[in-house]
Amino acid sequence: MSDDLSFIRDYLLSRRPEFTTIDPDLDLIDNRILDSLGFISFLYVLEERTGQEIPLDSVSPEDFRTLNRIRARFLDGGAAHAGA
Amino acid sequence: MTTANAPLEPLRNIAGALQANSRFQDVLDRLVAMSERDYYDPYKLFQWPDSLDEDAYWMSPELMTVYGTEVASAFDENQLKAISKWESINFYSVNVHGIRELLTSIIGRIHTTGFEIPSEYFHHIIGEENDHMWFFAKFCLNYGGKIYPDRQIVFAGPQIPEAESFLIFSRLLIFEELVDVYNQFMGGDERLHPTIRQVNAVHHQDESRHIAFGRQIVSILHEELRARLKTAQLTELGDYLKRYMRASVEMLCSPAAFRDAGIEDPYGVRRKVVGDPAFDAYVARALRRSTKFLANEQIIDDERIPRL
To answer: Largest CB tally within 10 Å, which of B48, B138, B159, B219?
Structure first.
């Protein structure tokens, strides 16, 4: 797991102490690890980490469903395409 | 979308609850009369100067999210004025996006089963909210050159379909009460430019009616739910609304606004602000009217708003 993905996972774990780990393919939305009310703070964490603002008109909720999807879309070079 | 979930709701129960409450019809009649009496043309009401003084507060200092926080103690007067400008543009932008959600929800219900009684008043709300959205957007575009984009994504909330309308009207009420705290204060704040005061004062005048309506319908819908939902479900709804309230205030603290104000490390500043005990007190002040009402109605268990 990359440093960026570990950072994101640790942030989510800090908000949901009932979880001790998060599988990269675990559904974050169905498991209420990520919800509408915590989303904006999460988005800012992601933007700060990647150094790029993420325009929401270019992404969908599915891009945030699992850690692996977040990695593919926004981390490890994916951020360069976030606004595409 | 609201309409997709609507068939899951016991709409006859909603209609019955609204019909059974004789006071509700009286309140609606009064609000319709007040809306007709206070009707105005927003396109002619406002004077829009070409520009507003940059060397001034655009938002009451006490209402800025950084107020009283440790990170703000390092800012000079010019930085605080710049933050007040862009935080006010963010505040009106949040209003624009909130009104879109409100309009979508009301339009999805007007003249549909369950909402026969309030539909007459819905016409007034829709018209007035359209006016509000216009003058808030106008302010942002004239003096900020943009409307900050909506940063929300809607995932599923509490999985209690019977409470769909209750949650929507609760969120709308909380949103309206929250922004009204700012509108009421800034509408009478002599330190602010007359155009800023007028935008806020006009909105406050209309919102007082919408809030009266919102309190009525939220109270009735929750009373109806109390008869049918389990205690754990009612607790889940209350906890969700508490989190919604905190999230709503946090939306007013924007790294984009800090960035446009020329503040270094805007994301770090936001993290420090929302993590500051002074911000917890700010949240409690901003939400006091809502928390008091919701606790009195036994919709939330107490007036404390925990961090997200």
So the answer is: B219
B100-116 pLDDT, tens per residue? 999 999 999 999 999 99
| % of residues, chain B, pLDDT over 70 | 97
Whether the full predicted model's pTM is greater than 0.80, yes or no, is yes
Query: Do the beta carbons of residue A17 and residue A25 sit within 8 Å?
Result: no
Amino acid at A23: D
Give just the sign of the alpha carbon dihedral B239, B267, B172, B152: negative
Any residues with CB less than 8 A from the CB of B124 and at least 6 apart, and which?
B31, B32, B35, B36
Task: Give per-residue pLDDT as tens, B120-155.
Answer: 999 999 999 999 999 999 999 999 999 999 999 988
pLDDT band at residue B8 using 50, 70 and 90 as cut-offs? low
pLDDT at B259 over 50: yes
Q: Percent of chain B scored above 90 by pLDDT?
A: 93
- DSSP H helix total and E strand total for chain B: 12, 0
Nearest to A61 among B150, B153, B246 (CB): B153
B157 and A47: CB-CB below 8 Å? no
CA–CA separation, A46 vs A40, rounded Å? 10
Joined together, the tokens standing for residue B158 give 């509490």
A29 and chain B in contact, CB less than 8 A: yes
Our CA-based measurement puts residue B40 at a distance from the nearest CA of chain A, in whole angstroms, of: 35
Tokens of B83: 């933050």
Residues in A touching B271 (Cβ below 8 Å):
44
pLDDT of A84 strictly over 60: no
Between CA B204 and CA B179 the distance in angstroms is 9
Three-class SS state of B157: coil
Which one-letter amino acid corresponds to residue B233? Answer: Q
Q: Report the distance separating Cα B115 and Cα B95, nearest Å.
A: 25
Task: Please tell me what DSSP assigns to residue B96.
Answer: H
Sign of CA dihedral B154, B279, B208, B49: negative
Query: Is A18 in CB contact (< 8 Å) with chain B?
Result: no
